[in-house]
Amino acid sequence: MNHSAINKEQIAGHLLVECLIEQGVKHVFGVPGESFLAALDGFHAYKDKIDFVICRQEGGAAFMAEAAGKLSQRPGICMVTRGPGATNASIGVHAAFQDSTPMILFVGDVGSDFRDREAFQELDYSSFFGPSTGGMAKRVERIDDPERIPEYISRAFATAMNGRPGPVVLVLPEDMLTKLVKSRPLPRLEAVQAWSDPGSLRTLREMLLASQKPFVIAGGGGWTPQAAQALERFSENWKLPVGNAFRFQDTFDNHHPNYAGDVGIGLNPKLAQRIKESDLIIAIGPRLGEMTTQGYTLLKAPLAQQKLVHVHSSPEELNRVYRADLAILSTMNAAARSLEVLAAPVNVPWESWTAQANADFIANQTPPAPSETALIDMPSIVDCINRHLPQDAVLTNGAGNFASWVHRYHRHHGLSKGHKTQLAPTLGSMGYGVPAGIAANITTGRMAFTIAGDGDFLMNGQELATACQHGAKSIIVLLNNGMYGTIRMHQEREYPKNESGSKLINPDFVALAKAYGYEGVRITRTEEFESAFKGAVENNKGTLIEIMIDPELITTRATLSQIRDAGIKSRDSK
Are residues 242 and 339 in the same domain? Predict the structure, then answer.
């Protein structure tokens, strides 16, 4: 980067943009606000080096930044204005926190001369976002001295990337950004690697040698292709079965003979039983939260029945919920590279255990025979998607039963092949998939595929306008069953026949997609899908394919009527 002369003054808003460029930032996602006009002018001054991606709602912008952070393992950047802009963006900050994603949210604030008077749109960001109040961010800071902008931005990058990755919030008073400064950007930062201590590795080896049925659960933030490759070699050396944590299904190659399946919602009952029967769980990276542990039942908290080795990059996470038999503080790159050279015996007693785990996974991939009366067969549709998507395509989704089809029937090649291919919120937030897919295409140029529900799409469907404005392409398969399906499923189980608050009257999604600038196609039969999907892959602009789904087809394992009947029977038995 060609810097200005060392002593030349410039406005602070331009310095802020220079600092982002120095850190390697190519895209900033946001909605413009009058509180950071000086920074917007900086983006104009450096438009050949950095792009301000103009989004249509701050929630969509924050999800895009979070997705960019997941893909690059460097902070995704979002910039919004004060008050309503910040609160709208908070959903993406929360997602980044729970998903352990590096991210920085810049918030334009009221001028320092108006502060603490409840000025227009003023908000206490430390109370709203701050970790001290049980909030959403690892750190919240306000930059009052413009000469210290490089220091604050450097610290934000370090905080977001080091330890357990996560979001940082930097507050920018409007008058601070307009002041003249002489400071220069600090050099690019890299994440610090924390290595496993040799004593812990020796203990882990002894625990493995004493085991009969070990099982590895991999996931969480901080994984790189190199770390994923090292994890594969560890699994191969010790012939260990590996399951991927909830919505980290691309951590370990799903085609690998040691892969046992994903440990999350809709868990294969045989895999659940296998984890319960295991005598040693090695959790590398995941927090072991509610979804991965099936409500803390696969591993009972706080003391699991299985021996537990927990490897994590945050000392605050280790022994927080589960008291581990062995807790190892390490980043994923360092942990995996240590484990891959852990001396393994020639033979282990669990080879057939591992082989059967993989056989159970493959059997669970085989869908039931299509119904003769159903017009739409989702396993067949996912099979078609698998055949036509490139191997490095990025798959995204928000929250809802619709996601279970891809989660179960798509097999990720995994990070070990060089690319992250899954963007899905462990937070369980609706509206994530559409902006995440758009951000994936903008930042990587790779094909982005999004599966969405009708309720989920309407949370952030407006970002199709962002895609078209910035020349991005995504393929969206939208399952329209006219309801909030997950909520309806729970209603059918808990309050049979009493639908309330979950029925939807939807717009014409095909016409809506076309209005934004996407292609739009509607199908009502399985055999119509392949030609529509092939056309979407070959098209040079985005496409939305709406699939009309029978409301009875609510999940991969049960229909509404089956859930309803099961609920009635359970009540009759009480």
Answer: yes
- Alpha-carbon separation of residue 335 from 195, 226, 237, 399, 535 (angstroms): 6, 11, 15, 31, 43
Residue 542 lies in a domain: yes
Pair (346, 371) in one structural domain: no
C-alpha angle 70-86-141 in degrees, rounded to nearest 5: 80
* Cis previous bond, 345, omega within 30: no
Q: How far is 100 from 69, CA to CA, in rounded Å?
A: 10
Spatial CB neighbours of 455, under 8 Å, sequence gap ≥ 6:
400, 430, 483, 484, 485, 504
Radius of gyration of the chain (CA): 24
Bridge partners of 28, per DSSP, are: 52, 77
Mark whether 461 and 350 lie in a shared domain. no
- Whether 192 is covered by a domain: the verdict is no
137-185 residue pLDDT tens: 999 999 999 999 999 999 999 999 999 999 999 999 999 999 999 999 9
Do both 70 and 157 map to the same domain?
A: yes
Burial class (CB in 10 A: 0-12, 13-18, 19+), 323: middle
Do 409 and 276 share a structural domain?
no
User: Which pair of structure tokens corresponds to residue 168?
Assistant: 């940082």
CA 343 to chain centroid, in Å, comes to 34
Residues 343, 205 contacting (CB under 8 angstroms)? yes
The pTM for the full model equals: 0.92
Range of the domain at 484: 367-572
Per-residue DSSP letter, 527: G
Q: Which ranges in 111-196 belong to alpha helices (H)?
A: 125-129, 149-161, 174-177
Are residues 82 and 55 in contact, defined by beta-carbon separation less than 8 angstroms? no
pLDDT digits (tens, 9 = 90+) for 13-53: 999 999 999 999 999 999 999 999 999 999 999 999 999 99
Residue-level pLDDT at 122: 67
Give 541's pLDDT tier (boundaries 50, 70, 90). Answer: very high
